[in-house]
C-alpha cells in the first residue's frame, strides 16, 4: 500500500513540476515583453532560437535531453499528446500566441 501511494505521489509531483516549468517559461516571456515593451522582438528571437536548435543534428542532442529545463527552447521537439504533458517547455506556438495577445494588449503590431 505504501509503495502504491508513493508511486502515485511521485507521478503527481512529476506532472506538477512539469506544469510549473511551462508556466514559468510563459511568465518569463510575458515579463520580458512587458519590460522591453516590444513583444514582437521577443517573438522574433524565440523563432530564431527555435530554428537554430532544429538545425542541430538530433543524435548530438540526445545527450542533452536531461538538460532541457535549462534551455530557452527544448533540445528535442515534442509531438502533441502525452509528451506535451511531460514537457518542460510550452510549445513555440503557445509562446508566440501569448506574445501576440500581449502585443494586442499593449496596442502595438506584431
Give the number of DSSP strands. Answer: 0
Could you give the distance between the termini?
54 Å
- How many helices? The count is 5
Oligomer: single chain
- Which percent range fits the helix content? 55-70%
Low-pLDDT parts are: none
* Helix-strand category: mainly alpha
**Average pLDDT value?**
77
Provide the gyration radius in Å. 16 Å
Percent strand equals under 5%
Helix and strand pattern? HHHHH
Task: Map the helices and strands.
Layout: H1 2-36, H2 39-55, H3 58-61, H4 82-86, H5 92-106
Helix pairs in contact: 1-2, 1-5, 2-5
Descriptive notes:
The chain has 110 residues and is mostly helical. It has five helices and no strands. The protein has helices at 2-36, 39-55, 58-61, 82-86, 92-106. Helix 1 packs across helix 2 (39-55), helix 1 (2-36) packs across helix 5 and helix 2 (39-55) packs antiparallel against helix 5 (92-106). The relative contact order is 0.16. The mean pLDDT is 77.
A few lines on this structure:
The protein has helices spanning 2-36, 39-55, 58-61, 82-86, 92-106. It is an all-alpha fold and 110 residues long.
List keywords for this structure.
110 residues, 69% helix, mainly alpha, 0% strand
